[in-house]
Structures are given as C-alpha cells and as structure tokens.
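To make this tangible, this section ends with a sequence with its structure tokens:
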Amino acid sequence: MRKRMQIASILTAGTALATSLALFSSPVRAWAAEGDRASEVITTTEEHGRKVYVNESIPAPTRATPAPQPKRTTWMYWSTRENRWKPVPSANTPSMQAARSAAAEIGQFVHESSKSANARIMAANSRGHQATPEEVDAAIVMAAARHNVDPNLVRAVVKVESNYNSHAISNKGAMGLMQLMPSTAKMLKVKNPFDAQQNVDAGVRHLKSLLESYGGDVKLTLAAYNAGEGAVARSAGVPRIAETQDYVRRITNLYYGGSDFGSSGASRDPVHVQRDARGMLYISNTD
C-alpha cells in the first residue's frame, strides 16, 4: 500500500513538471525593472535530448538624440568711442539703413569712376590723334548729309557736348564728340568712340532716330538725347531736370540764334525741321 502511494506521488509530481515545461516551451520575456540597461528573454533549446533554458539580454531601446541646434552668430565690432566690443545692430535699425544707403552711393560712385577710367584707357589707346576742328566739321557735314539731318543742329550738339574735343570723357563715362555712352556706342556698333567720323556718324544716327520719333520736335529730341526717351515720356515733354533744361536751352540758343560754333565756320541761318502729311522730314534754312 505504501509503495502504491509513492508511485502515485511520483506520477503527480511528473505531471506537474510536464505542465511547467509546457508553459516554458516558448520564449518568455522577463522585463527588467525600470532603470535597468537591458531586458532579458528566456529561450529553450534541445541539446542531447535535454531542454536547456537560456537567458538572452535584449539591448535597451536607444533614445533619439535631438539634432543640435545651429548656433546663432552674433557679429561684434570694436567701438573706439566706448573702447569695447559691441554687437552689430540688426538690419532694420535706422543706423544700418543709413549705412546701406551710404554704401550704395559709394558703390555707384566707384562704378561711374570705373567707367570713366575705362574710357580714358580707350582714349589713350586710340592712336593718340586729336581731331582738329576742320576734321570734326568735315565729319559733321558728311554724317549730316548721309542721314539727312541739319549740320547746324549737329554742330550745336557737338559744341555743347564736348566743345569739339574728340577725346572728351564725362564723369559718367560718356565718350567723344557727341558723348556716346558705352551702351549706346555698342548698340550703334562703334568700334572706336574717339574716332571723329565714327563718333559723329553714330551720334547723328541716334539724333535722326529721335527726330523721327518726336515728329521733328527739336526740343523733345534734345531732351531725349540728354535724359533718355523714358524721362521725356514720363514728363510728357522736356523733363523738369535742371541739367536737361539747361542742355536744351543752350543748344537751341546756338541753333536758332545763329551763334558762332567756333572755328568750324557754321552757318548762322536758323534751320527749320518739319514733317509733311506723308511723314517725310523736311529741313530748310529759309522761311
């Protein structure tokens, strides 16, 4: 009887052990307490007919590191008045706006000076020949006849623009007898703006184009030659610019007043320019 009870106890214990093994036949996670570096996983393997339980560590999930924020650069300057370093004011402060305005003015001055310097270099490389008044007048007569423009008007423009100096250069870079700007000379395909014939021919072509645009109106033509067609369009007439108004007055006084143009021996008779019903331009020095 006692022997049977021992066998029953062994069977009961075996059943309990088998049940326990069945429960652990799949991996069981044993999570580490909060703050531990890693968790553990219990797995079972078969070795030589025996089940072996193995604890495997699971690396703790890494926390995402926030991207480093770029450091804001603060520009500093040395104040000689206060004898210390000071932060540069922001771009919207009145002092910075005034500084930017001053820098723009300096940049414009440097730009215009460089254009004038380039013009002087071109003048120095133009074989050094200074056209005589007779050569200038001959160039005027030929260009005026070629493009059907009154030579006296051209003489007046040359007198005011350059005073018959074929190497004249303005502080804005205008060049030669009729003071062609570099962009205008390029547009008119002038290779040497200090050559009397090339310069006058290009200037007369430009003058003729303006005369046709303004229906033979000499004042508007001269205003556009000096200030540009855009300025004349915006003003609906001669712009109220002191330089332009003085320019138009001086040339028209020479042209209509029969003033002497110097050694060129220009005609003193006023020349009238008008357009007929067909659009043809007529130039005459008789009433």
The radius of gyration is 48 Å. Confidence is low (pLDDT under 50) at residues 16-36, 263-271.
